[in-house]
Automatic annotation (TrEMBL):
Pfam families in the record: Cadherin (PF00028)
PROSITE patterns given in the database record: CADHERIN_1, CADHERIN_2
Transmembrane portions of the chain: 604-625
Protein's name in the database: Cadherin-like protein 26
GO biological process, one term: convergent extension involved in gastrulation
GO MF: beta-catenin binding; cadherin binding; calcium ion binding
Amino acid sequence: MRAFARISAVLFLLSLNVLVLEASSNSHVRQKRAWIIDSFTIEEEHKGPFPYPLGNISIQRDYVVHFILHGKGVDEEPKNILKIDQNTGLISVHGKVDYEQYHVLKLTFEARKSSSVVDTKLGVEINILDINDHAPVFQKKVYETTTEESMTQGSNVLTVLATDFDKPGTPNSTFQYKILSVTPKTSNAEFFIEQSGKISFKGCLDYEKAKTYNVVVEAKDNGEVVRLSSNTTVSISITDKNNHLPTFAGRTGPGRINERESGVSVLRVHVTDKDSKNTPAWRAKYTIHGDKDNVFSIHTDPETNDGVLVVEKPLDFELAASRNLTISVENEEPFFSCQVQKKAETGLWEVLTTAGVPGQEGVPAAHTEAITVFVDDVNDPPAFKPPVKIIMVEENLEVGHLLETLTAIDPDRTYNSEFVYKIEKDPGNWVTVNPKTGQITTVKTLDRESPYVVNNTYTVTLYAIDKGKPPLTGTGSLIIHLKDQNDNVPELLQHAVDMCLSDGPTAVQIAAHDRDQDPFAGPYLFELQGDVKGKWHLDPYHGETATLVREKTVYAGPHELQLKVYDTQGHGSLQNLSVTVCDCTTSPNCQMQRAVTSRVTNSALGVMIIAPLVLLGVLLLASFLSCKKEKPVMQVDHGTGEYLITSNTETPGTDCPIPNEVQKDQVEHISNGVTLQKVQMSQQMGGTFSQQLPRKTLNRSMSSRSYMKAGPYQVCHTAELQLVLLPHVIII
């Protein structure tokens, strides 16, 4: 009822007596007037009861008018909130209105004489009064953030933000932030919030005292009738930083090593650290002091945080039986410390902070540990002094020449120094070594041009073996630089060349080389030997190469020449050179002609292999058929007349007398590639072979018609075909 009374006090009944003045003239014209009335108000979220009267609009007329209302709240959203009595003009409210959606309802009031004639038209504005019906709302129910333990007090940890949807600029929409609680509550830090929503702290954060803080923040508005509020929780996780230095907690391991050993772990040092495990604030970093030769190294075991000391270079007992070191330890992350000195009622507290490298600017010094590593004596191998010797000698030294003496020493104090020298590497087996003295002498001639010599040097490697248990070996090298001598003659690079046949002179280049070096090599002097005048000459004949010129009188075919080639010292040799002259019009070069000839020869060879196989098959078939039926034997006349098996010929043959007797095992070679073979003759028209007779292979010949006698055989040559006449059967 109090709200209704307040509304009634605000609302008033507006009664308007509207007088319409009519101007006098020859005719009466009615003038319409319009006003805007804006003094109506409605409180949002009014609880009713509905409907309740809002106000009355009346117009004084001598005639009856009807009232109509249009606009927001009637026939526009929010619809059906307002209604007007058509006869009395009373406006009533039938529902709630939300200020956050509609600040003002604008309507049109009409007074009509009839349904179509508007008598009066008024604009009406109804203001919605805001009430405190919205509490401030945070963007998140829970805020989460992470901050480092080393954060300075007064720094912004997090900013929260809330919003109130009531009318801006009114007490209903303004609010304040407040921290309601902090869990856990520690003495080293105190959180506060500014009206901008910024959350910060006073004092020092300490990971060991609180790993997470939960801060409850309230936002409460300034409503006159009622104050509304909401809460949010801010979860602040603390990251551990390096506010504790590592300290040594002991060591394990032998702390000893044999001399000459390396890559061996001799001991482990252990440390403790109160910071969080496996963080940069916890991981240890070790440093070795007093190791001027960089013999040792130390690394951190990632699992245990131990420092592992390793001997990286071999130690020598004879130089020092022990090594003294100092190891310091710190963390990967720089040290940080914060301590509260005084708590103030207002403002920030007084704190003492230190940060940086241990031992500087107030930071505590790093912890150190003294270490002694003992070296145990063992049998040392012999050592050549120097390990490599270089000498220079001329090649072709006489056998038994003393080249050099390699000497080894024993660095041990407690072991003997008797050695046996032995050759480990001598590629050409050119030297020998005295097993007691290390003297190296030649057993073969040293040749600079040998494939064992690289860049004029020959390397011999020796072993010196002591008599320890087990015996140890030292290695030394002798590098022999060989000086060149003129012990090689120039030689042609190619001993066969091709030249083309032409009407004029043709030329080809020939080159020489010498295995010796300057001044025992080129440029060379070339000289043709023999009867070459008018046939061959050299132009030029001096240099690394020479040009061989063929005169036009030289015919096609192979030619053998001899040349003398001299080096710059006049040391020379006689060289053979095969020159093939061919017609290059049919093929680009002589090699192609030879290739064609080779292919023809291969084809002929194939025919020669296949033909006997075919003949053998025919003979076997004839033998098989002869077994079924006895056939008469044809008598052969052994007189001077012979039988000739006809064959196609290119030209008529030549009559040749045939001897009557032929030796059975006689074998001869006949010119033009005709070879004598034995063939087994069979009785004609079947039967077995009665005797074996020699036979000559047929070859074509390009020679003129001739007659050759070859023992009991006689060969007739024609222009195209060579005939071999056998005593019994003549094959063409």
